[in-house]
Amino acid sequence: MTKRYATTAGSATPVFEEPRRDGSRDRILDEPIEPDLLLEFPCHYQFKAFGPAGDAFTQAVKQAVGQVVAIDDQAMRTRPSSGGRYQSVTVSVHLHSSLQLKEIYAALREIENLKYLL
């Protein structure tokens, strides 16, 4: 079985070709792709972080994003998991450059108990 690797904005990881049942193949990414090639700045962008339920995680996400761009409470929304132990926090922002995108992802990766980041 061929391994597949996902990509994240600002840090693309190689995706190796994997045949599908219909004979088509996934695209092979063998070099990192810069966000400037995928997005046109300025733009609206949504970050989504998954972590433990509770206000502490929500505030950590707000603080991480707020280090780079100004946000208000209307730019954020939370959604609990079906079991109630986790939540997703979505933050909508207006970015002016790929540097802002990279800085926000770097700040979000530093959050304690972060489970997943889109």
Description:
The protein folds into two domains: 1-33, no CATH class; 38-117, Alpha-Beta Plaits. The protein has three helices and four strands; from the N terminus they run αβαββαβ. It has helices at 35-38, 55-66, 98-109; strands at residues 43-52, 76-80, 86-95, 116-117. A four-stranded antiparallel β-sheet has the order 2-3-1-4, with helices on one face. The longest helix has 12 residues, at 55-66.
In short:
This protein is an alpha+beta fold and 118 residues long.
Architecture blueprint of SSEs:
Elements: H1 35-38, E1 43-52, H2 55-66, E2 76-80, E3 86-95, H3 98-109, E4 116-117
Antiparallel strand pairs: 1-3, 1-4, 2-3
Descriptive keywords:
single chain; Alpha-Beta Plaits; 2 domains; 3 helices; 24% helix; disordered N terminus
Low-confidence stretches: 1-16
**CATH-defined topology of the largest domain:** Alpha-Beta Plaits
Radius of gyration, CA atoms, in whole angstroms: 16 Å
The total number of structural domains is 2
One letter per element, helices H and strands E, the order comes to HEHEEHE
Please identify which CATH superfamily of the largest domain we are dealing with: ACT domain
Strand content: 15-25%
Helical content stands at: 10-25%
The order of strands across the largest sheet is: 2-3-1-4
Reported CATH architecture of the largest domain:
2-Layer Sandwich
Query: What is the averaged pLDDT score?
Result: 83
Shape: globular
Sheet having the most strands? 4 strands, antiparallel
Look at the structure and give the CATH class of the largest domain: Alpha Beta
Intertermini distance: 26 Å
Count the beta strands.
Answer: 4
Which secondary-structure class do the elements indicate? alpha+beta
Tell me the number of helical segments per DSSP (H or I, 4 or more residues long): 3
